[in-house]
Every structure is written in C-alpha cells, then in structure tokens.
Amino acid sequence: MNSKDLDLPKKEFKELLDISTEMILQKFEHFEERKAFHSFPQTEIENWFDEKPPSEGMSQVELLEEVKHKILDTATDNIGVHMYGYVMAGGTQISIIAEKLAATINQNIGKWHLAPSIVEIEKRVVQWSSEIIDFGKDIGGVLVSGGSEANLAGLTVARNIFFEKKNIQQKGLFGLKPFTVYASTEVHGCIDKSVTQLGIGTNNLRKIAVNSDFTIDIEILEQTIKEDIEKGFEPFCVIGTAGTVNTGAIDDLNSISALAQKYGLWFHVDGAYGGLACVLPSVKKYYMGLKKADSVAIDFHKWLYQTFEVGCVLVKNWDTLRNAYFKKADYLDSNLEDQNRLNFNEHTFQLSRNAKALKVWMSIKGYGMNKLKKMIQKDIDLAGYLSDQVNEAPDFELQARSALAVSCFRYVGNLSDESEIESFNKKLVAALEKDGRVFLTGTKLNGIFVLRACVINHRKQKKDIDYLLRIIRDVAKTLH
Ligand SMILES: Cc1ncc(COP(=O)(O)O)c(C=O)c1O
After folding, report:
1. What separation in angstroms does the CA of 274 have from each of 68, 156, 167, 198, 369?
2. Which residues have C-beta atoms less than 6 Å from ligand 1?
3. Whole-model pTM?
C-alpha cells in the first residue's frame, strides 16, 4: 500500500476490483438452486463479527474472501427467485454497475456545483417519474431513501405548506387546534411513523374502515371528516394508497380527490408499492385521480427493480418543495449568480446526498420503458397465476387476489377448525424460514392470519411459483 494515503497501486486495486467482479458474477449463477434464507442461529452470525476494531489493516484479498464467505454466501436471497417476503424487487445489473460508478466519483447531490450532471439527471428522473405515472409536467421532486421517507417528505411538505400562514416553521405547532389526517386501516405503518415525527400524533390519524376489496370506504371517510369538523378538529390531509402493502388494493383516488377538494384538504398518495404499475394499460383504470394529488410517494426499489435504497416524492412544482424546506445558511451561499442552478439542499431535508438518480436513469435508458413495463406486467400475471393455483387447490384457501402482484392465502390441508388453521399457518411461516428454500411472510386480513406472497422480481417465472407451492406443501407435511 502507498504509505502516503489509503490508495493502492493501480495493479493491486485492479486485482481487488477483478476479485469483487468475480464475486458479483457468482451471485448471478444458479438462482434456482439457491436457498432464499440461511437459517444460522443469530448468535453464530453475531460471533462471526465479534472483534475489536483492528489497529492494523489485513490483506485486502483476504478481506474480500471473508466478505464472500460470511456475507455474500450467506445473504438472504433478496435478488433471487424464491423470495416472496415483504416487497423485495431483486435489483438490476445496471443498478449494480451504476452504484459502483457513483461511488467512484463520490458526488454530493446537495448542491448543483458539487454534482452538475447528477443533479441534472435527478431532475430528469423526477420528470420521467411524473410522466410514467401521468402526474403532470414541470413538477418538483426529490429522490429519497425509499417509500417511508417519500411519505414522510410528502406529509412534511403538506404540513409546512398547509399551515404556512400560521408560520409553523417558526412557531412550531404550539397553540394550534389539533389537525387530522385520514387514511384507510390498510395504510402502511410509515404513515403512523410520519405523523408521529411531524408532531401531529397518531391519535389524530383517522384510520378509515375498508370495503371488502380492502380499499378505503369513501362514505365513512366523508362522515369522519364532517364529524371532526363539528368536533372542532382541523382536517388537513387525506391519504390514498395506490397499492396497499397487504393486498395491493388501490383506493378510489378520484373520489378521495373530490373529497379533498370539497373540504380543502391536502391530497397525498402513497404509491410506494403500486404507483409505478400505473404505467401499464391493464391496470391504469384503477389510478384515475392520481393526477389530482398534491404529493405522491413512489419507490424505485420496488417496481423499477432498483437496488436499495431509492424512492421519490413528487409535488406539483419546485417552489412547493423550496417553501417547505429552504433554510438560509451563509456557508452555503456560493455562486448565487446562476439562478438556473437547482440546489437540492434547498428542496429537501438532507444536505449531503448520494447519487441515487444514476442507477434509475441508467436502468430506464439501458432497459427502456417497454421492457420494464413487460416485467411489471409479468409479475402481476405471475401473482394471478399463483392466486389461480391456490384457488383451485383443495389444500389451500385463497384470501385475497390483487390487481397488483400480491396473493394472500392459507394452507388448510385437511384441517377444518378455524383456530387450528390459524395456528398451523403461523407455525408454517416459521418452519418455512427454518427450511430456507423459499422466503414467505405472513400478515393479517380482517384479523385472520394469512400467508402473503409478493411477486415483485423480474427474474421470477411460472416454474418458480410451482416450486413455491411444492415447498409449502412439503414443509406443511413435516408439521403434520
Ligand atoms: C404501500 C407502502 N408504503 C410504504 C412502504 C415503505 O417503503 P420502504 O420500505 O421503501 O420504506 C411500503 C413498503 O413495502 C409500502 O408497501
């Protein structure tokens, strides 16, 4: 190693890059044979890393070997074809390359002159996203860590702009009458976290009952808003979900937007899971009204198959973001002459930011929207295939079919007692994790525990769905 700094001579650096490239390539082999989860005891993995910070560095070739052995070879196969838990989209090869290149130039996307091309790329990705979901032209937006942060950002902007006249950015919320937020009982937990962080409080988040298809009940929503007004609350924001995490249900965004207009509320859409699917002609009809939202959260590490992390919040223009976030700081006031330069630090919370936009931009350019759309449609079709298989099988019971790519079901075997089925399925999820061949999680629908399979991964094929059902039956047999 060069003693003056941390850099290696070119030959040694290249050797490490070549080894790491080989490690990456190996992860793109044998997808089908790989386990989705490696069931090591927690303490064993903890022990692998139980050491003090070393005073001297080790051989970097050996370090890569350690990384391969302890991390890559044992990784939960989020990129693989047997992952059905949560919303794990698998990543793209272009994202991997983009992340490597972005780290190389180490741009800081906080200010234009620290990253001119990437700032322009991020602006482009924001406009493209808006075009993809048909949200409008010349909109403003920022790339963030994911769906949770995109929702927090949307609600932050909502609160700061809605209460701008009350100077809440200076005075805080002290002395204001409680203001209320509305969303369905199926809303994602990041909304609860967001209202907590924003000082609104979860007591003022009204969870509205859902219809049998898990979309928000519009009548109850309006009734609740009216009651709150009568009781002296200040209704301020209504949230529609475009693809709930449990079942992929898409709220009636048109009706929600009509209510938002009628009562003068901010309209936010959580499209983290399903927002980008609205690019498909087959499901576009479910997204009517999305255009009328004031803010939208979308998530590229879901349905644009990006590597973690990257999400996006969109609002109708850049000034809205600037009014919600701008804070003057003398040390940031440089090169004020060029007014066309967009400085992201003035439009979002973070100052230093990484180049999330590069992987999204490269993926859209490298694959093209037609191919990406084909993959999203394939995921939805595969989830439909899974629901059909489950529905036709005597030993399974379909609980929820989705317009998007989730299927919820129970394994019933020859059980008929409700409580037995419930406890069997809970045990099954744990047993499936221990087995590791497929990764599946559970959730509750109408209070009933169900298995939930999310089929977001461009690498998945029909035979993988057949394999999933085979493994569930196999593991279930061991439990009987
Ligand atoms: C509807 C919805 N909103 C928000 C989120 C949170 O997104 P993230 O995990 O990227 O923070 C999710 C994640 O699954 C989601 O499905």
Report:
1. 34, 21, 35, 25, 16
2. 87, 146-148, 151, 188, 190, 241, 243-245, 270, 272-273, 299, 311
3. 0.97
